[in-house]
């Protein structure tokens, strides 16, 4: 198996997409590793507009537990390696994550696109309200504890649920379309549109570009056939030695 570092030349652009797998070695469980259950909840029950409408107390109990859990966890060597790469190639690097934890930021990454939202933010549940999402570390353990917006509606987690539109998709697609290297780490390739981003690399290659896509994780993802290379192993095993920035060409 190929374990050579990927050489990043001057002017090459790198986009990394991470999923739950990169936080696994920090102690945050992935979604699809327990028979369709996510920390003992059916995903749709806690991560859909229907689940929220049916039982907002249950949804907030779940995300409150995730908030409390994330605080106990620390970034791992893979998070830090991505921060290191950003510090070396700056604007030529984009980090996109499906994760709602803040381990990338705490690992030193500066620019992180959270396409599925962030655990540390809440917002008004009324999309017409117009107030901005805000920092919120509170835990809401029951339905009566849920804070209200000034407009009177409940506040909800700033998380993209099933059936909702991910954030920043135009920016994300533009970044993938202009990159030379797309590295995907620790995601099962089962949730769209994230799982479809790699197909933009195929579009570029069809145009004659040398762009390539590499997957890193302990098992091939569902969309494995879209990658030019798969590196099997955990994020902490692979990512810290994955990139080689050619010294003379580092910014
Ligand atoms: N290092 C790297 N990858 C790992 C590790 C590890 N130590 N451990 C597990 N993995 C891989 C698994 O092989 C799996 O492919 O991480 C992936 C986790 O897959 P999922 O649980 O499906 O998580 P993810 O793909 O991030 O889920 C996507 O689904 O529930 C929604 O919005 C939620 O962002 C989430 C989205
Ligand atoms: Zn409001």
Shape: elongated
> H/E series, N to C?
EEHEEHHHHEHEEEEHEHEEHE
Low-confidence stretches: none
CATH topology of the largest domain: Rossmann fold
End-to-end CA span: 31 Å
CATH architecture of the largest domain: 3-Layer(aba) Sandwich
User: If helices are DSSP runs of H or I spanning 4 or more residues, what is the number of helices?
Assistant: 9
Question: How helical, in percent, are the residues?
Answer: 25-40%
- Structural class, judged by helices and strands? alpha/beta
- How big is the Rg? 19 Å
Number of domains: 2
Share of β-strand residues: 15-25%
Q: In the CATH hierarchy, what is the superfamily of the largest domain?
A: TPP-binding domain
Instruction: Report mean pLDDT, rounded to a whole number.
Output: 94
Number of strands: 13
CATH class of the largest domain: Alpha Beta
Strand order of the largest sheet: 6-5-2-10-11-12
Largest β-sheet summary: 6 strands, parallel
Describe this protein's structure.
By secondary structure, this protein is of the alpha/beta class. The protein folds into two domains: 6-28 and 74-116 and 166-245, 3-Layer(aba) Sandwich (Rossmann fold), CATH 3.40.50; 37-72 and 120-159, SIR2/SIRT2 'Small Domain'. The chain has helices at 21-24, 43-46, 49-54, 56-72, 77-89, 103-106, 169-177, 199-206, 235-238; strands at residues 6-8, 14-18, 37-38, 41-42, 93-97, 112-114, 117-124, 134-135, 155-159, 181-185, 212-217, 229-232, 243-245. It has a six-stranded parallel beta sheet, sandwiched between helices. A three-stranded antiparallel beta sheet has the order 8-7-9, covered by helices on one side. Helix 6 (103-106) links the parallel strand 5 and strand 6 (112-114). The longest helix has 17 residues, at 56-72. It is elongated, with a radius of gyration of 19 Å. The protein binds adenosine-5-diphosphoribose (APR) and zinc ion. Zinc ion is lined by residues 124, 126, 129, 131, 149, 151, 153.
């Amino acid at each position: 198996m190929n374990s050579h570092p990927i050489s990043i030349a001057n002017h090459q652009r790198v986009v990394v997409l991470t999923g739950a797998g990169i936080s696994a070695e920090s102690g945050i469980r992935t979604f699809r590793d327990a028979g369709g259950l996510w920390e003992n909840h059916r995903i749709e029950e806690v991560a859909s507009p229907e689940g929220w409408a049916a039982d907002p107390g249950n949804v907030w109990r779940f995300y409150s537990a995730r908030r409390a859990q994330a605080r106990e966890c620390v970034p791992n060597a893979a998070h830090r390696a991505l921060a290191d790469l950003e510090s070396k190639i700056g604007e030529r690097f984009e980090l996109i994550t499906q994760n709602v934890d803040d381990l990338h930021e705490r690992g030193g990454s500066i620019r992180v696109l959270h396409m599925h939202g962030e655990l540390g933010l809440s917002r008004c549940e009324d999309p017409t309200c117009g107030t901005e999402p805000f920092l919120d570390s509170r835990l809401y353990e029951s339905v009566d504890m849920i804070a209200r917006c000034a407009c009177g509606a409940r506040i909800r987690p700033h998380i993209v649920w099933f059936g909702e539109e991910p954030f920043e998709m135009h920016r994300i697609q533009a970044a993938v379309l202009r990159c030379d290297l797309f590295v995907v780490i620790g995601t099962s390739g089962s949730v769209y549109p994230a799982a479809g981003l790699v197909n933009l690399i195929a579009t570029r290659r069809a145009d004659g570009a040398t762009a390539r896509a590499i997957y890193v994780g302990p098992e091939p993802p569902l969309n494995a056939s879209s990658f030019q290379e798969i590196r099997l192993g955990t994020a902490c095993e692979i990512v810290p030695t994955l990139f080689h920035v050619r010294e003379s060409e580092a910014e």
